[in-house]
Amino acid sequence: MSSSPPPSQSHPVSDAASPAQVPAGLLARLPKVDLHFHMAGTLRPATLAALARKYDLPLPRPLETLYTYRDFYDFIDVLRIAAQAIRVSADFERVAYEAVEDAVRSSNARHVEMSFNPQYFMPTGVAYRVQVEGLAAGLRAARQDFGCSGLLIASLDRGLPLDSAGHAMDDIVGQRCDLVVGVGLDGPEREGPPAKFAALFQRAGRAGLRRTAHVCEDNQTLEEAPPSNVEACIELLGCDRLDHGYNLLASEDALCRARERGVYFCVCGVTSVARRQRQRIDGVRRMVDAGLKVSLNTDDPAMFHTDLAHTYATVLEGCNWGWAQARAFSLAGVDACWLDEQARQSLRHDFEREIALLDNEMASMD
Ligand SMILES: [Zn+2]
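Above: query sequence and zinc ion SMILES. Below: predicted holo structure tokens.
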């Protein structure tokens, strides 16, 4: 059975009132973890175009503007093409490998936990085993080549019928792979409150899988994604980690309870919708200020034109935070990750050693 990770040993240190801006080079070299990002959202445009060509799928526009969306539904259309263009084990392997390569090269990622939606590949008849074998092969090859470990989170889409989620869970618990350590839940909350998935998540828990869920996203109203959903995810779904969580700020009581439970929030600093960017940054700032445990992640890095280093820079700049908060985000990612305890401790030790060296560089710039 899963257990809650130990409490963070590094509560964010306050930066000075006007913290020195962290040089981009130093921020890029800060070791990082990404715990909340979706496989389809990592697809390089050139890779999506190559795979679409392979399967004779038309793209809506040229490569250069493929990830420039007219609106949210246009983004969903691109995601749909991505789901149709990844079919055989080698496709999944390529996508997973390139996702890690990009995270390492841009941002010094040292550990990633990639979500994938088994249900997206049901219409094209791609077996769960094919998906997982390919993804695991990609993560293992990337670990070999780049020294960045990778785990998988099989995520259910709350917008699809419950029996589809049930079939996916049959595969997830029936065809275990050691790299698939947890399950997630994504899609707009208005299409399915957490309680709807309680039985499925409890089944995952009995199978020894960790659990997370997208909750309280800021593109949903308080009626669609109320703060009480956080409690439902913890109590009914058994989540020890949550994705997003911004709407929680609307309830002081719910916020206090989440803080007492010590649940980690894997927030994302960059959103696809430009007009929501300021709101997102404010949400992250207020969650950190409220004393919640917060790690910083990318969501759909390629499709949102971001990476870990850019996400860190965007949030630090938007919140007027400096190096102390950058290192706090980095270490929170390690504390929240789902590596086994020995590997997690080892990763934390590595991060502390590397960060100490960067501390010296940062200090010498003052
Ligand atoms: Zn997400």
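Strands lie at 32-38, 109-116, 149-157, 180-186, 210-211, 214-215, 241-244, 264-268, 293-297.
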